[in-house]
Amino acid sequence: MGNGVKRFALKKSGLAIPVEVSLSTIDADHGRVVSQAIRDGRERQQADGTLRAAKNLAESALAAKSCFLTTASHDLPQPIQSLMLLSSALHETIEKPFAKKMLAMQSKSLAGMARL
Predict the structure, then answer these.
(1) How far apart are CA 113 and CA 111, in angstroms?
(2) How many domains does the chain have?
(3) Do β-strands 31-40 and 7-10 pair in parallel, antiparallel, or remain unpaired?
(4) pTM > 0.85
(5) Can you give the residue range of the structural domain that contains 106?
(6) What's the pLDDT tens digit per position in 39-68?
(7) Of 8, 36, 48, 95, which is least packed with CB atoms within 10 Å of its CB?
């Protein structure tokens, strides 16, 4: 009945509470009659508020994640490239085989990070 219209009912205590009203027609032996149901709308109103708050929280988290990913994808490649150049220059100056092997592993790791 009047979708989108907020309706209230007064309790015996005088407290106004939100209600949901629905009407149905019923074909009876003596003609068509209308059935009306009135339900307390406080529980649905509370659930709607909880759902709205959860939606807002999810949207905020999504925006924060997007901001982080944008920043990370922009700011991360430059330091990795610098480390790769430094690693390459260092490889030219090191003579010990073990140190060269460690530097090669570091270069491999940096190359993997650069592909992310």
Answers:
(1) 5
(2) 3
(3) unpaired
(4) no
(5) 77-114
(6) 998 998 899 999 999 999 999 999 999 999
(7) 95
